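Appendix B, record 7
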Amino acid sequence: MVLPEGFVPPTPPEPPAVPRDAATVMLVRDTAEGLEVFLQRRVVGMAFAGGMTVFPGGGVDQRDVDASVAWHGPDPDWWAHRFGCSPALARALVCAAVRETFEESGVLLAGTDAGSVVADARPYHEARAALVAREVSFAGFLADAGLVLRADLLRPWANWVTPAEEPRRYDTRFFLAALPEGQRADGETTEADHAHWQRPADTLADWGNGECALMPPTWVTLSDLAEHPTVASAMAADRTLGKIIPKIVRDGGVTRVVLPEDPA
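Structure tokens (predicted):
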């Protein structure tokens, strides 16, 4: 994969930047044409991945580790085992995944109890804005709203780490979640200038035609998703997780991304 000119600095930072923990969520839904995934195009000029088509997500907030979050589903120990991290970080990653999904798409993976899911997240619009502004914590929002985080609605999918050659690095855990019935995903975030649902194969075709820009993790994830005809199939996938760290290779005036299984 070829990166746009100027996407990475001409010389790598020394020492390499320490990756920041992050979470991203692939929201999927079933349609008559097959599985679709929710995508957003980041605003051009942003410090990281400007102009790229991505899934909702972002960095872990220090308050995401709050153990008071009402929780239903696999416990932090289970997530820690899957992602190879501490239970405290696993809790923060799941909270960040649900929080960022709500902030960036308006989809809320929570319910009033362990057996329910919010059918319409629009009544929480003001709380969403307060979360984006960091005026409230996610734990505080859930407590005030009387909601329980539904960790059981998420599936672990992959773990990508930004190459050492880049000045901004993230250790990102990828999650999969089905769009809850009755909810809708929107593009009401200042970090994106466009949002849409699309079949993974069609997004890859757009990338091949130069109609959208994808980072390697997004490209690979879309390729994996394209193998699943339905949401149920994707949610049932048995994923083997391990940190994937691409490498930046400069070939003349072209900057390429090389994946671990590539001989280069």
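Remarks on this record: The chain has seven helices and 13 strands. The mean pLDDT is 91.
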